[in-house]
Design brief:
about 450 residues; mainly alpha; globular; transmembrane helix; Fenitrothion hydrolase; transmembrane; membrane
């Protein structure tokens, strides 16, 4: 996809670059590398844990508290980022961005130059990942729907307590619906590059969030806001955390990820995120394009390609979920409850998701993100230059360094896979019996390798 023209969003929302394939054997080499590194990590860390565990009394529970530190600079930073003024400043930034988007949605022109498309598909969705990795739960900090909900609560004289208690049995299942709705809008809906549908999607999102926030309070956003759930999930790979007393601490990313506890819907969230990224790669592959052009019933049913996309955007997350759940449940041995293992081991998918986001969207985020910044200075398409960026020249660095981009893609996928295996191993040490720490993890390891081989093939063989 070229950004030389002013168009930022194609007929299928956003997508990764598909014009930079590498030889399939190089992709397979990356998968083999992931396999070797994963086995080395598994064997070495298991032996270390067994040596440490041999010195502990039999039956003593494993230590699950992550290592964390409070160096002097964190102690000095804590009062600032924990202050009301800091929170108000971030919420103000979110509200200003929200007001800008409302303006572009209501009075901006319905053309490809409207910055709302880039903000919606690129900055908001893809940008959540790097911002959450660097700064923690970024969307929770600036969420305009949270700020508006707090203002509405104050206006009606509420005490801050929700009207109803959020049903914990729902977990984050409502967020799964929101994530699927965004994936459908981005990847399937044929008119997603028109202002009306994007405006309607955002309006429904805001309405649902405000009503839910008034009924169930902040817990609703933690469990039901698809963007907050996504951002907070990725933020578990950042170094920022809070201890039991609410103080700011720094942790290792995997130690921070280990604080993610099982909840209803967590497996569905990670499978939807991973599965939709995989489908985004697959939908530009030659086999899928040929199927939609020359497949059965195509000549007699004009809507069949659209139907196929609708089926696939659901089928891919389901396939990921089945493959993952089977692999994790086969990991169970002895007294371990197999049905609980998918939720216990779900954090291990988060690094893989992040790795694929970087591999799939890096070049597009770099180029289209700059184009959106240029268009943001002229929100009404009247030749204005509000922020002094209308003359910005998009830097097509990755377009001229195809080999570097291909290598970054492989490295991102391999690193995400290795961190995923390591994360699964950390959690397995807590749930598997001591004598099965190696053999019990083999099915899960095979599952991870399957994800890597399939993902690399789809990223580079399309």
């Amino acid at each position: 996809m070229s950004l030389a023209a002013p168009t930022v969003v194609s007929a299928h929302g956003i997508g990764g670059r598909q014009d930079l394939p590498i030889p399939l054997e190089q992709a397979i080499l990356g998968a083999v590398l992931a396999l070797v590194v994963s086995f080395v990590v598994l064997i070495l860390t298991t032996r270390l844990h067994q040596a440490e565990a041999a010195e502990e009394p039999v039956g003593q529970p494993a230590e699950t508290r992550p290592r964390q530190w409070r160096p002097r600079w964190v102690v000095l930073l804590d009062p600032i980022v924990s202050s009301t003024a800091w929170s108000v400043a971030l919420r103000t930034v979110g509200l200003l961005i929200f007001a800008y988007c409302v303006m572009t949605a209501l009075i901006g022109r319905d053309t490809a130059n409207n910055p709302l498309f880039g903000i919606f598909y690129i900055w908001w969705w893809v940008g959540l990942v790097p911002f959450s990795l660097l700064f923690g739960p970024a969307w929770k900090a600036i969420s305009p729907v949270r700020a508006i909900n707090e203002a509405l609560t104050a206006l009606r004289g509420g005490s801050g307590e929700p009207m109803y208690r959020y049903p914990e049995r729902l977990g984050c299942w409502p967020a799964v619906v929101g994530l699927m709705a965004f994936a459908w809008m981005e990847l399937v809906y044929p008119n997603n590059n028109f202002l009306g549908p994007v405006r309607l999607w955002c309006a429904i999102y805001v309405a649902v969030m405000l009503v839910g926030g008034q009924l169930y309070g902040s817990r609703f956003y933690e469990r039901c806001d698809p963007f907050e759930v996504y951002s907070s999930l990725v933020a578990k790979l950042s170094v920022w955390g809070r201890d039991d007393e609410g103080r700011l601490v720094v942790r290792t990313p995997l130690g921070n990820l280990d604080t993610l506890r099982p909840m209803p819907g967590l497996v569905a969230v990670v499978c939807v995120l991973f599965g939709t990224i995989v489908f985004d790669s697959f939908r530009d592959s030659t086999p899928w394009i040929k199927l939609k052009q020359d497949g059965p019933f195509i000549s007699t049913h004009a809507h069949m390609p659209y139907v196929l996309d609708n089926v696939a955007v659901v089928a891919f997350p389901l396939a990921v979920a089945v493959f993952y759940c089977v692999g994790t449940m086969l990991t169970g041995v002895d007294h371990v409850r197999r049905r609980q293992l998918p939720a216990h081991l779900a954090p291990s998918i988060v690094p893989i998701i992040v790795g694929y986001v970087f591999a799939h969207y890096l070049s597009y985020f770099w180029e289209a993100g700059q184009a959106t910044l240029r268009q943001a200075s002229d929100p009404l398409s009247d030749g204005s230059d509000w922020f002094g960026t209308s003359g910005l020249q998009v830097n097509y660095f990755f377009a001229y360094h195809a080999t570097l981009l291909a290598n970054i893609k492989v490295i991102a996928v391999v690193i995400g896979h290795v961190l995923g295996v390591w994360s699964a191993h950390i959690r397995a040490l807590q749930v598997l019996p001591r004598k099965h720490l190696v053999t019990g993890q083999i099915p899960l390891l095979v599952t991870m390798i399957g994800f890597t081989i399939g993902g690399l093939y789809l990223l580079f063989a399309s």
